[in-house]
UniProtKB/TrEMBL annotation:
It comes from the Bacteria. It comes from Taibaiella soli. The chain crosses the membrane at residues 12-31, 96-114, 135-154, 160-179, 205-226, 232-251, 263-283. This is ABC transporter permease. The keyword Ribonucleoprotein does not apply. Keywords: Membrane, Transmembrane, Transmembrane helix.
Amino acid sequence: MTNRWFKDAGIHPLIGYVLAMAAFVGISAYLFYKTPYAVYVYPLLALSLAGKLSELKRNDFLSQCFPKRKLNQLRITENVLAVLPFVFFLCYKQYFLFACVLPLFASLLAFARFRTTANITIPTPFAKKPFEFIVGFRNSFYLFLLTYAVSLIACFVGNFNLGLFALMISFGVCLFFYVKPEHEYFVWSYKLDGRQFLLRKIATALLHVSVIVLPIVLLLGCFFYHDIGMLLLFLAIGYAFLIYMIVAKYAAYPSEMSLMQTILLAVCIAMPLFLIVLIPYFFCVPQNI
């Protein structure tokens, strides 16, 4: 499946794997560089990835294809392979205890079965448009609660960098709201030309993401008022990344974002100033909308 995705993107699978590994290493190194709490966050990210494989319907299907013993072996192998890149990087950073414990927890997680989506309707502070924030917020609300908790901890322990980390994680979750292209009907319903449509999407997205990050910004602004300039800078960077996701998504519409656009996003994480060039470029690309 991964090979087919690379081929559809026009990239040889071998080159695609090399680029994906380089992006993984770069993002991992950046996370450890930015916060001393990365050693705790990193294993949780790995387990959340492995947890996606425990989805109930997926495991019900596998149980019909394999006997129980074979299924358990398959699921353990899947989970260990999913966290293996994280284990290697933890070993590289000399966190050997976390590197040893992570595969053990991943193996135990293989016996779990749970739904990755809830059947309850969660109220949101957003209007009916755009649908991205309604669906995204309901699927990820617990992550925002986690970032709010981390920002509170940052204030109690006097760690401004930890608060900035919580802020950027909130923005990072919102970026994933714009990964998948929607049905053409939801674009056609705006009855606007390409640039008017993009401006409308950007304005609404900035408004809605502000509702999400406002509690963190106010909290950090009150407790770390002497660092208000740095806080506003990171807020602007978060807005810039969200704008990039929107213009890049609709530059490729109705297809998904290309691998090159994803790689450019990874480059921008290390060099945010690159967004000054990429945002106008993708905004001016002829839109198929």
